[in-house]
Design a protein that fits this description.
This protein is of the alpha/beta class and 407 residues long. It has two domains: 195 residues, no CATH class; 124 residues, Fusion Protein Consisting Of Minor Coat Protein, Glycine Rich Linker, Tola, And A His Tag, Chain: A, Domain 2. It is built from twelve helices and twelve strands. The strands form two sheets. Strands 1, 2, 8, 9, 10, 11 and 12 form a seven-stranded mixed sheet that branches. Strand 3 and strand 4 form a beta hairpin. The protein is elongated and about 90 Å long. The chain starts with a helix and ends with a strand.
Length: 407
Amino acid sequence: MLSYLLRASLGSMIFYIGYFCFFRKSTFFHWNRFYLLLGIVGSLVIPLLSFVHFPNFTNVPIVFLDEITIGTKAISDSFVASNQYLPIALKTIYTIGVFGFLLSILRQLLLVYQKIQGHTQQKEEGHTLVFLEENSPVFSFFHYLFLPKNFDFETPEKHLVLQHEQEHIRQRHSIDLLFISLTQAFFWFNPFIYLLKKALQSNHEYQADWACTQNEKIKTYTNLLLAHATPCVPYRISHAFNHSSQIKNRIMMLYQNRSHRLTTWKYLFIIPCLFLVLGIFSCAKEDTTLRQNTLTGKTSSSDNVFVTVEQMPEFIGGKTAMLRYIYTNIKYPQIARDEGIEGLVKISFVVDKSGKPTDFEIKEDIGGGCGEEALRVVKSMPDWIPGKQKGKAVNVQYNLPVQYKLE
């Protein structure tokens, strides 16, 4: 889960940097919208592709347990427990954040629903007008357009405000906004999701402004924006004409020279962006596989020994219990201390169908008795809960890295 969240965050960073460098000032707003949505979807989907494993029964890497560091000082139970409690704390913080954002979205949806149900409605072609209290701000959400009941439809300026919100409805911008808001709920820790959301919202406003100025003078429309600017919006999941935080950029974009059609070639940057994200993830996966195969020196597809199964073997009591057992029983060999030997030892073993550790082998050694000491402790481990594949107990191979470090 953590790996996926980090990979997706990296993908969103790549797509946002591409937008910022190449498309931020482009007036091809429809293409910008497509790129931003593709970037969000791509950053969510592409990392999942790297989790799709295509089995290769002639070259399967061995699964490595977490590296264990052995020093000259005794390891306390609190240190061992911290290895377990830190991930739990991070997961708890993440979950609280997700639920907080989801509850905020749900609250806004309920408030909008109450506005719809509690006020007069008037169906029009393509949208539904909802008349609120006098002097209420004008905003839209899906096909609902919210207006104050004293809204003057005859005034040219008011007609432009109405046209602006109708464009949001016609372009179905609310779908984009709800989607990015839900994505933000699950990636609330990722700053690039906020930047992508802001860019998408701004692009929505540029599209609506552009539609309103086709037959109007830009100066007249600019004065209208300044006259109706307000620092707040009714709901973050809605589009409001008069949100002051976007007024400056909207006015600048109105006076921006229209991008030449020949510059549409820049949108081909989408292709290398996709390949870059795919390449980073696939190369990382390939590097891990090569590293594991090099360290193990052999495949593990023979003798019905698995490397990954549906239910992996588990040390009784979990990871914390295993760490405590190893730290309690392993010693730093005196010869290694005297000779200043440090480094990494790797022990290979198989948890068989009955849960008994077997087939022990020192894969890498640094001398000084370090390999033999790690092997002794691993051999003395009690039985594990066996791994299962399709409901049946199977043999599963592991590598255990043990780092010896003098302090």
